[in-house]
Amino acid sequence: MKINHIGFAVTEVPATVEMFETYFGMVRAPQTPVSTKMAFLLDKNGSLITMFKTDDAFYPEIFHIGFMQDTVEQVEEIHQKLTAGGYNPENIREEHGRMTFYFNAPGGFMVEVNSLITDKRPELKDQVNSN
Q1: In this predicted model, what pLDDT tens digit does every residue of 30-80 receive, in sequence order?
Q2: How many whole angstroms separate alpha carbon 11 and alpha carbon 30?
Q3: Do the beta carbons of residue 93 and residue 102 sit within 8 Å?
Q4: CA–CA distance, 72 with 120 (Å, rounded to integer)
Q5: CA 92, CA 80: separation in Å to the nearest integer?
Q6: 3-class DSSP assignment, residue 69
Q7: Cβ–Cβ under 8 Å, residues 105 and 16
Q8: How far apart are CA 88 and CA 85, in angstroms?
Q9: CA 103, CA 119: separation in Å to the nearest integer?
Q10: Both ends of the chain: CA-CA distance in Å?
Q11: C-alpha angle 89-95-101 in degrees, rounded to nearest 5
Q12: Neighbour tally for 122: CB within 10 Å
């Protein structure tokens, strides 16, 4: 089984679309609207993220969406790109056998970027991946 889609209420649809496209390689779903009010994006596996504009998006502090990378170097690269792009990601840190960081997305929710440290968590190597 795989996740088909996740729907978000976001405060800034265009800025959130730009973030997902620029830093996470998502693309606009064919024949779906992208506007200031809604957007539909696909990842390389065909999972869909839907976004709808709201003025009062509220998520609990712990809520986030996570993007698993194949390598620690990819985590570092995304961190550098986000920083250069004007985002303010947390410092990268080791946590539970992963290298990880979080940042606030323009739409009003948090994003995590991480990768397994495979020599510290070899039992997860074949169970958790970025594809």
Answers
A1: 998 889 999 999 998 888 999 999 998 888 888 999 998 988 999 999 999
A2: 23
A3: no
A4: 13
A5: 10
A6: coil
A7: yes
A8: 9
A9: 26
A10: 13
A11: 10
A12: 11
Which residue in 131, 111, 130 sits closest to 20, CA to CA? 111
Q: In which order are the strands placed within the sheet that holds 38-42?
A: 5-10, 48-53, 38-42, 27-28
- Half-sphere exposure of residue 129: CA atoms within 13 angstroms, side-chain side: 6
Report d(CA 52, CA 5) in Å as an integer.
13
Q: Identify the residue whose tokens are 């690269």.
A: 77
Say if residues 130 and 44 touch (Cβ distance below 8 Å).
no
Q: How is residue 108 written in tokens?
A: 């009003």
Global pTM?
Answer: 0.86
